[in-house]
Design a protein that fits this description.
Structural class: alpha+beta
Number of domains: 1
Distance between the termini: 55 Å
Strand content: 25-35%
Radius of gyration: 18 Å
Largest sheet: 4 strands, antiparallel
Number of strands: 4
Order of helices and strands: HEEHHEE
Number of helices: 3
Length: 127
């Protein structure tokens, strides 16, 4: 019985540490340094838990570091826990971005691919 209580205490402690680190990562984002527009690509993931794949193109952007940081926060299953596009829309709104438009393209621009990406365009809104 003592061993079960010990295991339970360790599990609760680990979950608390994960939750605190997730909150800290979200609070560390300095949205003022982010670009005016952000395009986020999403793709349905057939994962058991139903998360979506999130990708933000960062290559050769002057905001590369900020976009990588945002991508990590949004993609982490420990931080935002974004399971669908609705969660993503709400998360970006909380960060100060509004949804502008969307478009769909095939994976790697391959016309025979069955993987489709939804590209969501966000713009900073002024409060």
């Amino acid at each position: 019985m003592n061993k079960n209580k010990y295991s339970l205490c360790i599990t609760i402690f680990i979950l608390a540490v994960i939750q605190l680190s997730a909150q800290k990562a979200v609070e560390d984002l300095d949205i003022k340094k982010f670009p005016e527009y952000i395009v986020i690509s999403t793709r349905s993931n057939n994962d058991l838990f139903g998360y979506i794949d999130i990708d933000i193109e960062t290559k050769k952007s002057k905001y590369e570091a900020e976009l990588i940081e945002l991508n990590e926060v949004l993609s982490s299953k420990n931080n935002m826990r974004i399971r669908n596009n609705t969660d993503l829309l709400n998360a970006m709104y909380n960060f100060g971005y509004e949804f502008i438009d969307s478009f769909v393209n095939r994976s790697n621009n391959n016309p025979t691919s069955t993987d489709f990406y939804n590209n969501l365009v966000f713009k900073k809104y002024s409060k």
